[in-house]
């Protein structure tokens, strides 16, 4: 298509530029803005009528003038050149190389907004990913092709947990590792370099692609960055047959950018000023995970978001939770108790867990054990507040056992080292140790034959003391 | 008739396109741009039509052509609907895959809703010269192994010709004289999705929809032809509950609408249903199911249409005389689609940015449920039961979608996050939920299950309510401070919660309980309670009772299959024996 250039900007408002007297401009088309200083910036058409095109600028609008600025319409939507040479490289938030390496010679150029996967063409995710972390493997199992976000809060060790998962994640039996795609969305330089250092240290970097939009980079770019990462992931997974783990951090910054643009466009705001279409917009990111028929590869997403004020009902975690297949929630209470990883298993959930566990995948007792631990830990936690009021002595004997179960669960099951890679058998065996605190009559979620097979009771120590 | 006129695009803003369209009529379907994207006219101002486009509009340029089909959005009704999986505007996803030549949904794909190559074996029920009315059965086609498709007349007139044989849906099966003209008869016809299909009369719902879920059937029953809503925060099990209802309800047809939900979830339904066997017929459940999947990342305007598409298909099978259950997961996403489009149209928003017509649209949708006498001269009855999931932000049901839904639905199944956290499933809170069908269905239960069933239900519910009161006391003073009689209530309600209300959707036996099994299970627990009360009166300590072996057996009774109901008689007898023993050794 012919290039079209205009010098007819008639309004600049925040990140938006209004160009007059245009014709033949397509919706969502990419534009290049050439400033009087010769500097070039990119933008995208947000709204186009017969005369006026509204352009959203990726970057600051400072320095743009209504007279001497040229707007060039490039005739296509935002595309990314893709190649397997991208592995081991770092790019900025717009997909330009950020390291000192050469330009990528693309094998393919693909629209970054992606097309929806036909639900009919999807394969059900069912392969268990062993992350080596008990709270995830045992109770919120991750499977290939799942999108499982980490809901965290500021100051909690979500980054440590994410790198530990990236380092340890593998499919059991095969030892196959993942290609990792890391998209930094508006995080600080310090946080980004924590990830990069860890990837370098463990040698994961050569199998990783990094897209970095840091806190001082233009916020509008944040709309683009996750889509670049996912376009790359889809290419590596469905075209090259690789298993890809995508780490997106921090989605809260993405949503802030979305709100910023929405308010600049003077749209009717939804809850807390976020645009009414945020659910749909987020879904076009999260839904780009999965497995498809006819391809060996998979895209597994691990987005991280910090809940403003640790509030799970804030629109960002709320809408995310409605789209993703579960969530891993970090707890400030556990963190204060010095427990790492501070995963609060009760509100955490993996919706695809039941597809990835069981006799031929993990172990036959997995589901029963997980349910029993959930029920027992929940009961124990409830009793804590009761025992704080009436004293432990006023509780029944069974209730005291529940209390002990909850305490031991946190100390032995949740707590583990940042470099401790527990396989699923270890995790399940720890679970049986914990369950041995309880009498059989309280173990209604596990099958009788599993109790007989896996439970090792060590006499009756607690009773004898009294 | 279709008048193919057109015009050109003037403005594009997301899924909303403004265009000058000659001959535009409100709600007519148009083809937008060079790539012929499907859209619908939703507003006309002067010579400008506002179009909501069902596909991604990237790359459209002002000036590109727009063509109107001259017809409103409609669905094709005929054999071949069952076992299909459609997007929001009845495009079969299977043929989209073939046309896209890949796993992604490409734009501008035109595929026909019904398969035009399949030959159906048609058996006429009327003969030449017969007078027929609208809704009369012209003949039948075996659509799937389970379901006989009844071909309904859309005309009132005299049959000129009709023949048995095998036909594709494009071939004429005969002809009819209608208002002096001869019209061809086909196996299918079209219907506008936004218009409900007529019936002769609506009746009050008096037959329960047996869902196999104890908490629902026993405490909060849904009636065939009724409406229910399931609000709950994320992770509380809305979708699992909806899917369980789709699997185990005793209806003949299931329409499942995945409206703005997860892709992987729809895939799971798609892969699972062909393998699930209907306990009554022994055939795969897919044989009676139609799925509509417009996932969250598929175009938002098609999501708005998906609810109408689904309910129109449901009405079509109702008109054949079937009981249909329609699951809409989730109506909140539907409301959000309306909000999003309303925002693009720069409409004045109502509450929380939702359009002012939200309440009306929700009410109109649920009003399409009901048990009816269908059109046609033979006496046929069919029903549509609508069960809508609601996803309130933060789980707070004071928001507009939940509130407006509660105003029109009769059953409220309140899903509860704290229950879900402790893996109490279905996580339906028994204190907050309600059903307005309890009284109307009582007669059916008395006649078909047992005369004391309604009474048992009431006493069980009273116990559960008592428990909530007692728990408040326990929180202050501890359980030991309660009198033994009240401690006994806590023991029994724990049984009710764990051994009755909780149901394991992943266990072959427990996933579904028939009404008879529900009755004997409830009876076991309440019988136990009666015996406990009696024993306490005789001065037996609760501590001794709580060691009885029958408690463990009650805990495992949900695993007793319905083929071995006599085990319950034995359990009842053993409960009696154990208590007698206790009394004897007192």
Report on the architecture of this protein:
The complex is a heterodimer of chains A (466) and B (586). With 466 residues, chain A is α/β, with parallel strands linked by helices. Chain A has 3 domains: 4-73, Thrombin, subunit H; 79-354, 3-Layer(aba) Sandwich (Rossmann fold); 366-454, no CATH class. Helices cover 33% and strands 23% of the residues of chain A. In chain A, helix 3 (189-202) links the parallel strand 16 and strand 17 (208-214). Chain B is built from 16 helices and 26 strands. In chain B, a hairpin with a 7-residue loop joins strand 23 (370-373) and strand 24 (381-390). The radius of gyration of chain B is 27 Å and the shape is globular. The relative contact order of chain B is 0.10. The mean pLDDT of chain B is 91. At the A-B interface, strand 5, strand 11, helix 6, helix 7 and helix 10 of A face strand 1, helix 1, helix 4, helix 6 and helix 9 of B.
SSE map:
The complex is a heterodimer of chains A (466) and B (586).
Chain A (H helix, E strand, L loop, with lengths): L3 E3 L2 E5 L2 E4 L9 E6 L5 E9 L4 E6 L11 E8 L1 E4 L6 E4 L15 E4 L10 E2 L4 E3 L3 H4 L4 E2 L6 E3 L5 H11 L1 E2 L7 E9 L1 H14 L5 E7 L10 H15 L3 E7 L1 H14 L13 H9 L3 E3 L5 E9 L8 H9 L2 E4 L2 H5 L12 E2 L2 H4 L9 H25 L6 H18 L9 H12 L12 H7 L6 H5 L1
Parallel strand pairs in A: 9-17, 14-20, 14-21, 16-17, 16-18, 18-20
Antiparallel strand pairs in A: 1-7, 2-3, 3-6, 4-5, 4-7, 5-6, 8-10, 11-19, 12-13, 12-15, 19-20, 21-22
Helix pairs in contact in A: 10-11, 10-12, 11-12
Chain B lengths: L5 E8 L2 E6 L6 E5 L4 E9 L2 E6 L11 E8 L1 E4 L7 E2 L6 H8 L19 E5 L6 E2 L4 E6 L5 E5 L4 E6 L2 E3 L6 E5 L2 E5 L3 E4 L8 E3 L10 H6 L7 E5 L6 H11 L4 E7 L3 H10 L16 E6 L5 H20 L3 E7 L1 H14 L13 H9 L3 E4 L7 E10 L9 H9 L2 E2 L4 H5 L12 E2 L2 H11 L4 H25 L6 H18 L13 H23 L4 H4 L3 H7 L10 H19 L2
Parallel strand pairs in B: 8-21, 19-24, 19-25, 20-21, 20-22, 22-24
Antiparallel strand pairs in B: 1-2, 1-6, 2-5, 3-4, 3-6, 4-5, 7-17, 9-11, 9-14, 10-13, 11-12, 13-15, 15-16, 18-23, 23-24, 25-26
Helix pairs in contact in B: 5-6, 7-8, 11-12, 11-13, 12-13, 13-16, 15-16
């Amino acid at each position: 298509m012919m290039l079209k250039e205009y010098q007819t900007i008639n309004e600049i408002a925040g990140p938006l530029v209004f160009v007059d007297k245009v014709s033949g401009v397509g919706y969502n088309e990419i534009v290049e803005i050439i400033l009087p200083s010769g500097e070039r910036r990119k933008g995208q058409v947000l709204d186009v009528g017969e005369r006026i095109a509204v352009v959203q600028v990726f970057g600051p609008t400072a320095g743009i003038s209504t007279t001497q600025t040229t707007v060039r319409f490039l005739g296509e939507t935002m595309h990314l050149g893709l190649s397997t040479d991208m592995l081991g490289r770092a790019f900025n938030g717009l997909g330009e190389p950020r390291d000192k390496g050469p330009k990528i010679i693309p094998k393919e150029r693909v629209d970054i907004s992606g097309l929806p996967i036909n639900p009919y063409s999807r394969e059900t995710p069912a392969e268990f990913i062993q992350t080596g972390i008990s709270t995830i493997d045992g109770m919120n199992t991750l499977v290939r092709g799942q999108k499982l976000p980490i809901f965290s809060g500021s100051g909690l060790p979500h980054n440590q947990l994410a790198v530990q998962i990236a380092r340890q994640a593998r499919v059991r039996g095969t030892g196959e590792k993942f290609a990792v795609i890391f998209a930094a969305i508006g995080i600080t330089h310090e946080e980004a370099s924590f990830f990069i250092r860890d990837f370098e240290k463990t040698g994961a970097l050569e199998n990783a692609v990094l897209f970095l939009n840091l806190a001082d980079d233009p916020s509008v770019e944040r709309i683009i960055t996750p889509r670049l990462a996912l376009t790359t992931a889809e290419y590596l997974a469905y075209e090259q047959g690789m298993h890809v783990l995508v780490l997106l951090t921090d989605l809260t910054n993405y949503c802030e950018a979305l709100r910023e643009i929405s308010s600049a466009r003077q749209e009717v705001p939804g809850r807390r000023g976020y645009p009414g279409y945020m659910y749909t917009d987020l879904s076009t990111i999260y839904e780009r995970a999965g497995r498809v028929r006819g391809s060996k590869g998979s895209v597994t997403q691990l987005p991280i978001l910090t809940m403003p004020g640790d509030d799970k009902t804030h629109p960002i975690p709320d809408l995310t939770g409605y789209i993703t297949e579960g969530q891993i929630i970090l707890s400030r209470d556990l963190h204060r108790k010095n427990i790492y990883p501070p995963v609060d298993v009760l509100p955490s959930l993996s919706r695809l867990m039941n597809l990835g566990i069981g006799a031929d995948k993990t172990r036959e007792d997995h589901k029963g054990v997980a349910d029993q631990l959930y029920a027992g830990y929940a009961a124990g936690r409830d009793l804590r507040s009761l025992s704080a009021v009436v004293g432990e002595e006023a509780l029944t004997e069974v209730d005291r056992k529940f209390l002990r179960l909850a305490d031991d669960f946190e100390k032995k099951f949740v707590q583990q080292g940042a470099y401790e890679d527990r396989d699923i058998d270890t995790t399940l065996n720890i679970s049986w140790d914990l369950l041995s605190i309880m009498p059989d009559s309280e173990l209604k979620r596990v099958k009788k034959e599993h109790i007989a097979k896996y439970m090792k009771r060590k006499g009756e120590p607690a009773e004898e003391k009294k | 008739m279709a008048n193919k006129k057109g015009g050109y695009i003037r403005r594009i803003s997301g899924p909303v396109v403004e265009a000058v369209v000659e001959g535009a009529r409100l709600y007519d379907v148009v083809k937008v741009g060079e790539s012929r994207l499907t859209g619908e006219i939703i507003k006309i101002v002067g010579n400008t039509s506002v179009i909501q486009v069902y596909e991604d509009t990237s790359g459209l340029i002002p000036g590109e052509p727009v063509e109107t089909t001259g017809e409103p959005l409609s669905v094709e009704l005929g054999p071949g609907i069952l076992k299909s999986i459609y997007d929001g505007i009845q495009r079969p996803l299977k043929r989209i895959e073939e046309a896209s030549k890949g796993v992604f949904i490409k734009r501008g794909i035109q595929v026909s809703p019904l398969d035009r190559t399949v030959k159906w074996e048609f058996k006429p029920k009327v003969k030449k010269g017969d007078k027929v009315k609208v809704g009369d059965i012209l003949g039948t086609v075996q659509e799937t192994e389970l379901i006989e498709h009844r071909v309904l007349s859309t005309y009132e007139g005299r049959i000129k010709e009709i023949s048995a044989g095998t036909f594709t849906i494009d071939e004429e099966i005969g002809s009819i004289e209608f208002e002096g003209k001869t019209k061809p008869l086909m196996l299918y016809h079209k219907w506008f999705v936004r218009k409900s299909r007529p019936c002769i009369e609506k009746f009050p719902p008096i037959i329960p929809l047996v869902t196999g879920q104890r908490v629902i059937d026993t405490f909060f029953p849904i009636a065939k032809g009724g409406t229910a809503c399931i609000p709950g925060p994320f992770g509380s099990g809305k979708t699992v509950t909806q899917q369980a209802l789709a699997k185990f309800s005793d209806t003949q047809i299931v329409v499942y609408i995945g409206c703005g939900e997860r892709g992987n979830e729809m895939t799971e339904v798609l892969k699972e249903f062909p393998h699930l066997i209907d306990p009554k017929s022994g055939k795969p459940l897919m044989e009676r199911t139609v799925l509509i999947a417009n996932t969250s990342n598929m175009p938002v305007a098609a999501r708005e249409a998906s609810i109408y598409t689904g309910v129109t298909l449901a009405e079509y099978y109702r008109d054949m005389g079937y009981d249909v259950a329609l699951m809409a997961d989730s109506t909140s996403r539907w409301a959000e689609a309306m909000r999003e489009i309303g925002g693009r149209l720069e409409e004045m928003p109502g509450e929380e940015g939702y359009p002012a017509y939200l309440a009306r649209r929700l009410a109109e949708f649920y009003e399409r449920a009901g048990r009816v006498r269908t059109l046609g001269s033979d006496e046929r009855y069919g029903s549509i039961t609508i069960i809508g999931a609601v996803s309130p932000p933060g789980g707070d049901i004071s928001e507009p979608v939940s509130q407006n839904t509660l105003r029109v639905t009769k059953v409220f199944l309140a899903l509860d996050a704290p229950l879900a956290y402790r893996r109490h499933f279905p996580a339906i809170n028994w204190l907050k939920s309600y059903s307005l069908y309890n009284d109307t269905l009582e007669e059916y239960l008395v006649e078909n299950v047992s005369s004391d069933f309604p009474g048992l239900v009431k006493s069980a519910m009273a116990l559960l309510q008592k428990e909530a009161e007692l728990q408040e006391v326990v929180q202050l003073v501890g359980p030991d401070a309660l009198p033994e009689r009240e401690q006994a209530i806590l023991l029994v309600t724990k049984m009710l919660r764990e051994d009755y209300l909780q149901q394991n959707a992943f266990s072959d036996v427990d996933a579904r309980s028939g009404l008879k099994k529900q009755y004997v299970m409830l009876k076991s627990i309440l019988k136990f309670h009666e015996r406990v009360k009696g024993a306490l009166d005789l001065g037996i300590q609760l501590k001794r009772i709580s060691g009885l072996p029958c408690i463990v057996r009650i805990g495992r009774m949900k695993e007793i299959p319905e083929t071995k109901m006599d085990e319950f008689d034995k359990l009842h007898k053993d409960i009696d024996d154990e208590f007698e023993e206790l009394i004897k050794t007192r």
